[in-house]
């Protein structure tokens, strides 16, 4: 019997609310995997790839991850979000997804869309979140096209999400929406203040960023079917980790 | 030819973001109808039923409503939310819904579930929002059961939403979720401060109310598949009307 490859896990926490995107508000548990092929300038989870979190990485079997989810979350959840880093680097996640489904638990996952995995077609709430110019990364459109094509063929519910910090990012968001017109599209106001800890400063600033994005998108005829959302968890918990 | 019955309209505005529930963040136009069979203690649109807005009511044909939506929203929208009051008091809304669909525009509607209309089955995003004890209203469960049964038979996407102000409301929310277990369920933190105009006071208060509701629901095993959301528009615009 071939030994299952373990999963590099950095955090397991919850239940909490999903703060972004297509299932915003959903009660969910989080599993955060280590490792990323990107290094976005404004990444809010840089410890997953910049080396600073390396001592916290645990190599766990899928069954261990599920056991830990059940220890922490008890019977209070039926939804798990796999986050990163880029979980799409890990072919071995298929076993975890199958194990969760076997327990009646739904699975959400977000990835930048730089790498395909066959288990994408099994994710209940899949978000492809290509990164805009402000990230410093560049999009491989051929790979992204291929992922969108495969998911569409599989008849799978998924959405596109672009984080927007400035007008250049917004132009990129429009490009993405025009390239994949049939796919539900989310624009998210970016948080470019990752160090502020005072909610009295943080909260009005984030609301102002969200209001800016609303102002830039509402009258735009190329963004008719758009959702515009904040990162709700940063409004509640600021830059705190593990909530 | 039978003359179409006009629609009592109080407000037409947008495009803006939907601030609540199953399509939170969605770019949408709003049509607010006059009249309600309820008079919730904390209603944020009491002008639709308490007489204070009666001089603003216009009796419009469906085609006039659509023309006004297009004048205000141009070609920048593909989604309209019909709100109230209780729009379910108006059998004549079917023509408006058909007219919007004919233009490729999706329609959302929220109602307390006190009255069935055949056009419920045509709504793209329908929210049934029975009112908890703090409203001072009482739920007719037979009517609500009947509406849920008809919508389920029609294979229509819809959800349940309960606004929660206190623990008694939360107990009611659980009752609703247990009664309709297969239906996507949203709990929404209530805004019991309808007069505050200072965002520096309003915003932290609303965040605190939302955090309270998260705290009361996350560990609860009877609320596994729940979404917990704020009224996002009140976080951005406070108690302002028409945004």
Automatic annotation (TrEMBL), chains A, B:
Annotated pathway: Purine metabolism; 7-cyano-7-deazaguanine biosynthesis
SUPFAM superfamilies assigned: Radical SAM enzymes
Residues where Mg(2+) binds: 45
Enzyme nomenclature, EC number: 4.3.99.3
Binding-site residues for S-adenosyl-L-methionine, renumbered to this chain: 42-44, 85, 129-131
Residues the record lists as binding substrate: 17-19, 32, 83
Catalytic activity: 6-carboxy-5,6,7,8-tetrahydropterin + H(+) = 7-carboxy-7-carbaguanine + NH4(+)
BP-aspect Gene Ontology terms: tRNA queuosine(34) biosynthetic process
UniProt domain Radical SAM core: residue ranges: 23-239
Keyword annotations of the record: 4Fe-4S, Iron, Iron-sulfur, Lyase, Magnesium, Metal-binding, Queuosine biosynthesis, S-adenosyl-L-methionine
Cofactor remark: Binds 1 [4Fe-4S] cluster. The cluster is coordinated with 3 cysteines and an exchangeable S-adenosyl-L-methionine.
Residues involved in [4Fe-4S] cluster binding: 36, 40, 43
InterPro entries: 7-CO-7-deazaguanine_synth-like, Aldolase_TIM, Deazaguanine_synth, rSAM, rSAM_sf
Cofactor list: Mg(2+); [4Fe-4S] cluster; S-adenosyl-L-methionine
GO molecular function: 4 iron, 4 sulfur cluster binding; carbon-nitrogen lyase activity; magnesium ion binding; S-adenosyl-L-methionine binding
Subunit record text: Homodimer.
Function: Catalyzes the complex heterocyclic radical-mediated conversion of 6-carboxy-5,6,7,8-tetrahydropterin (CPH4) to 7-carboxy-7-deazaguanine (CDG), a step common to the biosynthetic pathways of all 7-deazapurine-containing compounds.
Family affiliation: Belongs to the radical SAM superfamily. 7-carboxy-7-deazaguanine synthase family.
Protein known as: 7-carboxy-7-deazaguanine synthase
Naturally occurring in which organism (per UniProt): Paenibacillus soyae
């Amino acid at each position: 019997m071939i030994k299952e490859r373990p999963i590099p896990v950095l955090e397991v926490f919850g239940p909490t609310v999903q703060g972004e995107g297509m299932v915003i508000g959903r009660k969910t548990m989080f599993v955060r995997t280590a490792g990323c092929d990107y290094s976005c300038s404004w990444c809010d989870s840089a410890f997953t790839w910049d080396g600073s979190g390396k001592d916290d990485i645990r190599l766990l079997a899928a069954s261990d991850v599920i056991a830990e989810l059940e220890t922490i979350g008890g019977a209070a959840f039926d939804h798990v979000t796999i986050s990163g880093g880029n979980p799409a680097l890990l072919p071995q996640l298929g076993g975890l997804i199958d194990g969760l489904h076997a327990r009646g638990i739904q699975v959400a996952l977000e990835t930048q869309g730089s790498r395909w995995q066959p288990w994408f077609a099994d994710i209940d709430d899949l978000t492809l979140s290509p990164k805009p110019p402000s990230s410093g990364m560049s999009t491989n459109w051929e790979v992204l096209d291929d992922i969108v094509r495969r998911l569409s063929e599989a008849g799978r519910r998924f959405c596109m999400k672009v984080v927007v910090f400035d007008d250049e990012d917004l132009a990129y968001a429009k490009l993405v929406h025009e390239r994949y017109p049939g796919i539900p599209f989310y624009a998210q106001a970016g948080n470019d203040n990752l160090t502020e800890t005072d909610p009295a400063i943080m909260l009005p600033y984030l609301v102002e960023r969200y209001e800016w994005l609303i102002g830039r998108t509402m009258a735009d005829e190329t963004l008719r079917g758009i959702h515009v959302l904040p990162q709700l968890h940063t409004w509640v918990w600021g830059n705190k980790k593990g909530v």
